Structures are given as C-alpha cells and as structure tokens.
Amino acid sequence: MTAEPGPIHGDPLIIALPNGRILGEVMALLCRIGIEPEPAFDDPASRQLRFTTSEPRLDLIRVRSFDAATFVAFGAAQLGIAGNDVLMEFDYSEIYAPLDLDVGHCRLAVAATADALGQADVGRSSHVRVATKYPEVTRRHFAARGIQAECIKLNGAVELAPRLGLCHHIVDLVQTGATLKANGLVEIERIAEVSSRLIVNRPALKTRPEEVGGWIERFREGIGLGRPSPTQPPAIPSPASGGGSVRRGG
Q: Which residues contact 117 (CB under 8 A, 6 or more apart)?
C-alpha cells in the first residue's frame, strides 16, 4: 500500500530539484511515486522556476544542484534532492537525509595532469594548489593527510584550470573519466562515492510530520524499500550528526 501524505497544513510543500545531469533520473523516480509536473516544467521556452504538480499540496522548484540543499536548509523548500557531495561540502545541520535514492551515481575524485608528479608527489608535499567546486571537502581531505590545500574555487569547467596553468590538481565529480582524459588529466585518488539523497528540512519534519513523513514513505516505496518495521521506526538524528543516517536497499 502506498503511503499518503497526512493532514493539510498551510501552504503546499515544496520539493527542490537539481538541474543538470541527474534531472532525468529524478523525474523518472517522481513519476513512479505519482508526481507529474505541470506542462511548463518540460517546456524549454518557459522561464518558470516553480511548478504545480498532479498533487494539489505539492509544488516543485528547479534550481542549481548546490542550491537545492540551501533552499531546504533554510526552509524555503521542505524537501529536496541533493548529492551527498553537496551535503559533504555544506554540512547543514538543518538537513536530514533519510534516503539514498540510488540515482546520480558518480564519484568525487582528485585528478592531476598526466605530466605532474601525481599521487606520490601529493603524498610528500606539505602544500598543494587545487581547483574545485568543493573547497571545504578538499581542505578536509588533504588536511587529514597533513597537507595544506590552497583551493581555487570554480563553479564550472574545473578541468580547464590545469591546462591554463592555474594548478596541477583538481577535485571534481567523475562519472566515466572521459572528460578528464580529454583534458589531459588522470584520476589519482577517490574521495567518495556519490549518489543523490532525499533531503528534508528538520523543522518542517517537526511542524508538519504527517505531510513530510508521508512523502518520505512515498519515496521509500518508490525505490523499493517498503515501509520500515514498526518495531524499529527510523529515528531522526540530532543536528550534531549532520546529514543523518541514509538508508538503502540491501
């Protein structure tokens, strides 16, 4: 049986969706759980950013991948979808991430120019300059190895930085490695496996538990996990635990 959202409270709930490479996978999942956006969502000429859906109490917004987490963290959206790379970078205490949605698979990795000294050199260095969209993750990763990372923050075309002499190393998402190869880069270290997570605003889960909890269950069933055992209900982690525990099928 499909879980239904609970009683109505105030304005419609909003789900923040990430634009970009995973949107197709995300929309297929939404379709499976009965969420169909209004026609303007698929109209390339439309300038809309907020959309009604087949669910009268649910709207969608479509934003940049990093911004989806920000909208949820600050309560502008009650639910959203974001990669764990984004959650690692921002570590918002206001976000609870109850589900790994098993879409958007890739990895966060360190890459270097083919003619650079590579991994062995990084291991011997006390300082490295890195171009990345993920300065916080990058600093933490290298600091754990006793290396100070000087991060050059870029929002795109990160692979171009070494070719133009900004640095020898980058930290970025890698899916097939084709973009790295095309730009003369070699993956030398994997930082984390990445996939997309359902994220929830903690205060919204407390103030609108039936509605928000109902959608968590719809997503849970949509990825084939079914409902949790009544003897072991999923606990909401404290803010100190960061994004919270993530459940996947096993």
A: none
The pTM is what?
Answer: 0.83
Give the span between the Cα atoms of 111 and 193, in whole angstroms.
15
User: Helix (H) and strand (E) counts for the chain?
Assistant: 9, 11
Average pLDDT along the chain = 87
Alpha-carbon distances of 107 from 76, 81, 129, 179, 192, rounded to whole Å: 29, 17, 21, 13, 6
- Which backbone phi and psi does 156 adopt, to 5 degrees? -175, 170
Compute the CA torsion angle 17, 68, 195, 149 (nearest 10 deg): 150
* Distances 143 to 22, 89, 90, 149, 175 between C-alpha atoms, Å: 31, 15, 17, 7, 25
> What confidence tens digit (pLDDT) does each residue in 156-169 have?
999 999 999 999 99
**Beta strand 106-113 pairing with 185-194:** antiparallel
Determine whether 3 is exposed, middle or buried from the number of CB atoms within 10 Å of its CB (0-12, 13-18, 19+): middle
Distance CA 84, CA 172 (A): 13
Q: Would strands 13-18 and 58-63 be described as parallel, antiparallel, or unpaired?
A: parallel
Closest to 23 (Cα-Cα) out of 4, 2, 51, 57:
51
- Give the Cα separation of 14 and 60 in Å (integer): 6
